[in-house]
Amino acid sequence: MKISFPRMGNSYIGFKHLCEGLGFEVVVPPSLTQKTITYGARYSPEFACMPFKVLTGTYVEVLEKGADVIISSGGIGPCRAGFYGVLHEKILKDIGYDFKFIVVDPPMANLKDFYNNVLFLKPRNLKWGSFLKKVRTAWKMLTALDGLDMLVAQRRAYELKKGDTQKAFETAVSYIDSAETYKEVVEAETEGRKLIERVPCDETRKPLRVGIVGEIYVVIEPFMNMDIERRLGEMGVITHRSIYVTTYVRHTIWDRKAEDYIKDAARPYLKQMVGGHGINSVGETVLYGKDNYDGVVQLAPFTCIPEIVARSILPKVSRDYDIPVLTLHIDEQTGETGVQTRLEAFLDLLREKQKVLGECS
Ligand code: SF4
């Protein structure tokens, strides 16, 4: 059985190791390219949001490579994500692909379905203890990858030679990819961190700090957001992403307090769920404002209702916390030059504000 799943940053490494460890052959989802978007746009409804189209394109690519099982995450709340699974399966089967589509929803959405999905993944002859050990190792791999991602977002702004931190990061990720056991993952993470921390830096710099909020897929997958964190980092900015694969899983499944903290921050502006990460975009912007960040970039797929709602509220948050917010709408037509120009103008504004505040204090 050949299994595959969506590509979201480097998380595919953790999922690949888990599935291989459970005895499946894995079709690694290829890096997203223009070809993915072309397939996605060809087979998706025109009105579908960008993440839907990119996922359609990815699924076509992995099915062409021979995948016969696709595992995807579901969605809860009032937005189209909840229908993605059904719709993707129908579109792809109508094209003529024969495969099994598994949508993994959070356990509290439907405990029985969740358990059945776990049973599908767990080989019958594998003891539960061994199964959980493999899950634990994969989880450690995912947290290590996210940890490295957080570290480079902090370090890029200080590097002496542009691109050195990225090179160290890619090597560190390859260490994690080569690890097999839990212990090896821990060691790989330690080595990877050391490598990134050894990149020659100018620690006297005073970089701007910018938070990134928005819809989960465009925030996490660099291809979708024109590699915004690397772009900003190499322009001398420390970035902080509001969401990672592991924080999403943690907040959704067992750390509801962390999620409530963000929602509480949003409450004076938005009280009800609007689907996706709309409420989080508002709450996180409030928290970045309280934490004296210099600015926030909101990443919003074109036609994404939750982010449109957040977008309409963010100007008020921006005024209340005196934190500039830039919204970038992402669709098939979004080009690197346009994003670069808007980021440069935004950073000019932030630097000007920083200078004025410095003169006043
Ligand atoms: S959150 Fe936005 S982009 Fe994601 S599925 Fe919902 S409407 Fe589409």
Explain this structure to me?
The chain is an alpha/beta fold and 361 residues long. The protein folds into 3 domains: 124 residues, 3-Layer(aba) Sandwich (Rossmann fold), CATH 3.40.50; 78 residues; 155 residues, Rossmann fold. Helices cover 57% and strands 11% of the residues. Bound molecules: iron/sulfur cluster.
Summed up, what is this model?
The protein has helices at 11-21, 34-43, 50-64, 81-95, 111-121, 128-155, 164-178, 182-197, 216-220, 228-233, 245-253, 256-266, 278-290, 305-321, 336-360, and strands spanning 2-4, 25-26, 69-73, 100-104, 208-214, 237-241, 295-301, 325-330.
Q: How far is the N terminus from the C terminus?
A: 65 Å
Largest beta sheet: strand ordering: 2-1-3-4
Number of discrete domains: 3
Overall pLDDT metric: 94
Give the SSE string: EHEHHEHEHHHHEHHEHHHEHEH
- The oligomeric state of the chains shown is single chain
List the keywords.
single chain, 361 residues, alpha/beta, Rossmann fold, four-stranded parallel sheet, globular, binds iron/sulfur cluster
What topology emerges from the helices and strands here?
Blueprint: E1 2-4, H1 11-21, E2 25-26, H2 34-43, H3 50-64, E3 69-73, H4 81-95, E4 100-104, H5 111-121, H6 128-155, H7 164-178, H8 182-197, E5 208-214, H9 216-220, H10 228-233, E6 237-241, H11 245-253, H12 256-266, H13 278-290, E7 295-301, H14 305-321, E8 325-330, H15 336-360
Parallel strand pairs: 1-2, 1-3, 3-4, 5-6, 5-7, 7-8
The structure holds iron/sulfur cluster.
Iron/sulfur cluster is lined by residues 49, 51, 79-81, 215, 275-276, 301, 304-307.
